[in-house]
Write a structure and sequence with these properties.
By secondary structure, chain A is of the alpha+beta class. The first copy, chain A, has four helices and six strands, in the order H-E-H-H-E-E-E-E-H-E. Chain A has helices spanning 14-26, 32-41, 48-60, 113-126; strands spanning 30-31, 64-68, 74-78, 97-101, 107-110, 129-140. The N and C termini of chain A lie far apart (69 Å). Chain A binds a DNA duplex through residues 5-6, 8, 10-13, 15-16, 31-33, 46-50, 52-53, 56, 71-74.
Chain lengths: 147, 147
DNA sequence: GTAGCTGCAAACAATTTGCACACCG
DNA sequence: CGGTGTGCAAATTGTTTGCAGCTAC
């Protein structure tokens, strides 16, 4: 056998960049379909399939967060080191949740030690093990709040 | 105009009872498809469409709780006054959440004043309004816990 | 040159809807 | 009877997979 020809790294393609860029630019949660549309409108036509594939990939490698709409649609958001001066300094590594704006998809990350603790405690009390939890908050961001 | 001929009450049909019975018997969250299968196996053949219709109806009238699987499937559970002696005495009216067993669907209701409070506080801090939240816990019930 | 990408079309799974017929009251 | 409930088949929607061609390295 030959020496491993470099462990199947990820190739740098136009599509991959376009998708990641669009997602970065969005600064909020977006569904695959939305991104697909945005890219098309932008002239950066990318196959829907490809969008899905990259989004799943980003999610798997923890480079993007995922939440599920009430209707079951998946929404993605890039979650790299892009907090310049957040007051609570939530780190990307930390397990966290989001408040997503129902109108524009803009979101705020929130770390909820209390919730994690609560979940673990309640689960333990009930005798349940191997717990995983889902916590998603939806609302209207300041900009889209009815006064 | 004639006098309202009795406000479209719900008719008592074999299917409606079968579905509700199956759901009651299940004592845990079940998907529409699972119930459909269970009923068919039971000889109580009911159309899948009908199962879906009754499940939605039960959910709308708050007679059943709904949670969504990680894969996006909807699971239903009858939530009538069926707690004989729960220690924390969570009432059906109260907004609550569940710990659902990944293996058997059996669940425990948990009221989480702390979570509600946390959600409201965090949302307010971020300036978000009109908040709704989703909290779902999945795990393994004592019976299905690996030791 | 070749394995890893792409993307179109078809496959899929969960859920909904149209519509003719059955059945409760 | 009369309208509500039922269920089959077809339509929808979000997402995945098969596979032939393209492309980065």
């Amino acid at each position: 056998m030959t020496t491993a020809p470099s462990p199947g790294r990820q190739r740098s393609t136009r599509q991959a960049q376009a998708i990641e860029a669009a997602l970065a630019r969005a600064d909020g949660f977006r569904t695959a379909q939305e991104l697909f549309g945005a890219l098309r409108d932008d002239g950066q036509s990318v196959g829907l399939t490809t969008v899905y594939r990259h989004l799943s990939l980003l999610a798997e490698t923890d480079r993007a967060d995922v939440v599920h709409t009430a209707e079951g649609e998946a929404q993605y958001r890039l979650c790299g080191p892009r907090h310049s001066g957040e007051s609570d300094g939530v780190e990307p590594e930390t397990h966290h949740h989001h408040i997503v704006c129902r109108e524009c998809g803009r979101s705020v990350e929130v770390s909820g030690p209390e919730v994690e603790a609560w979940a673990d405690r309640v689960a333990a009390e009930a005798g349940y093990t191997d717990i995983t939890h889902t916590v998603e908050l939806f609302g209207r961001c300041p900009e889209h709040s009815a006064r």
